[in-house]
Amino acid sequence: MTASVSEVAADRLAEEVVHPDVGDDLDPQSLIRGTAAIALLAVERATAGRGSWDTAHRWLAASIREGAETGEHATLFYGAPALAFTFHGAAHPSRYDRALTVLDSATTAVTRERLKAAHARIDRRKRPALAEFDLIYGLTGLGAHHLRRDPHGQVLRDVLAYLVRLTEPIDVPPYGLPGWWTDLAPSGELSPQFPDGHANQGMAHGIAGPLALLSLAMKRGITVDGHAQAIGRICDWLDQWQQRTTTGAWWPEWITLDEHRIGVVHQQAPMRPSWCYGTPGLARAQQLAGQATDDPARQRLAETALLDCLADPAQLARITDSGLCHGWAGLFQAAVRVADAADGPEITERLAALLPYLVDGPQVPHSGFLDGAAGLALALHTATGTAPATGWDSCLLLN
After folding, report:
1. 198/183 Cα distance (integer angstroms)
2. Considering Cα of 258, then 262, then 266, then 271, what sign does the dihedral take?
3. Residues 6+ apart with CB under 8 A from 206
């Protein structure tokens, strides 16, 4: 399958998603599956010269028509931060300055309020909720936006300083649990299936997200006290729980207290190779860590883990949808970013084999970003050989 086929597919799907009839049935402020998601796609295509700025403007205007949430539901993927992220891609050279001024102020206020609550929680020596620190709902996601929008600003440094504290252990021996250990289940709720909580490993809700953000900032020369030590603590943890089979290295999705006590995981094999929890996201986070800390062995480990994953039919067969979060689009976008930074061409050479799954894979259920048509169309746009013009995949901490 050639890049031209991907180009046709990308254009066709994008035109379906950004149809000029702006629908009223979408949540305007949602980047996950609302109007903001479609606006993000429209902005990327207009910036790359493949779409109309008039269309992008209609979707941007629709996304902000009901204002911007700044309360407890505001995250990188909803409300003021989501809109700030989306509008930022359209801001060059000076578009939407007034809107961004308001959204920037609101997003900074949201971030500072979350930081205040997080530090107070640490001071009480309580364990965190996933939504305090994760990429989808928490401070890692807000930090991802600030790294893109204002990389040398104080608010980003404050997020990074918080993440350093997050990696410091709260519990005393004998268990020695990491600071990101939560009393909740992976769902973010209390559950009898996780009576002692867990340590989440994934990019979306676990410690791979903070690792990627800390590493991306360090690569750009932005560091805070304890920065390198925090990266080291996370990497040491991932090394402790790295698993090896005949098909390569992989990491369990989470660690329970029982597993931590005995040093043996119950997960017997890698699950689906998704951005959110699987090898693609974890490999990219560790590749970034290797680059940031000048650790070529870690970089090679990460790249080899992804290469082995891409060569394993059993792992690939576990993918059942086409979206960014846990489907073909996310695997492809992560693989592209790893390949771009890899020492060798092997991962790049395997990308072509993924294209048919993007073009002819399972239908997506809606027009949204994480598991919908907007996200798939953005990955197809990358598949044409065009690097993201707006850096849209920084909200996945892939770049």
Report:
1. 7
2. positive
3. 130, 134, 180, 199, 200, 253, 254, 277
Output the CA angle 221-223-225, nearest 5 degrees.
155
Task: Write the CB contacts of 343 (distance below 8 Å, at least 6 apart in sequence).
Answer: 296, 299, 300, 303
The Cα 147–Cα 76 span in angstroms is: 12
In eight-state DSSP terms, residue 280 is H
Which among 180, 184, 179, 206 is positioned nearest to 195, based on CA atoms? 184
Tokens of 326: 């846990």
- Is residue 372 within 8 Å of 33, Cβ to Cβ? yes
Q: How far is CA 221 from CA 153, 203, 216, 289, 293, in A?
A: 13, 22, 9, 13, 11
pLDDT band at 9 (very low <50, low <70, confident <90, very high): confident
Contact criterion met (CB below 8 Å) for 281 and 337: no
Q: Which pLDDT does position 10 carry in this prediction?
A: 80
Please report the pLDDT score of residue 173 as a whole number: 58
Number of other residues whose CB lies within 10 A of the CB of residue 170: 18
Q: What torsion, rounded to 10 degrees, do the Cα atoms 121, 126, 130, 131 define?
A: -30
Cis peptide before 81 (omega within 30 of 0): no
Residue 363 has pLDDT above 90, yes or no: no
Q: What is the pLDDT of residues 142-152, one digit of tens each?
A: 999 999 999 99
Going by the DSSP 8-state scheme, the letter that residue 363 receives in this structure is P
- pTM attached to this predicted model: 0.96
Chain-centroid distance, C-alpha 33: 15
Shortest CA distance to 33 belongs to which of 373, 331, 380?
A: 373
Task: Give pLDDT, residue 386.
Answer: 83
Would you give the DSSP letter of residue 29? T
Tens of pLDDT along 364-390? 988 899 999 999 999 999 998 888 999
Mean pLDDT value across residues 277-285: 98
CA angle, 216 as apex, 210 and 220 as ends, to 5°? Answer: 145
Alpha-carbon torsion, ordered 375, 269, 236, 273, to 10 deg: -10
Tell me which residue of 101, 115, 93 sits closest to 64, measured CA to CA: 101
Residue 67 Ramachandran class (φ > 0 left, ψ -120 to 50 alpha, else beta): left
Strands 243-245 and 248-250: antiparallel
Contact between 370 and 389 (Cβ < 8 Å): no
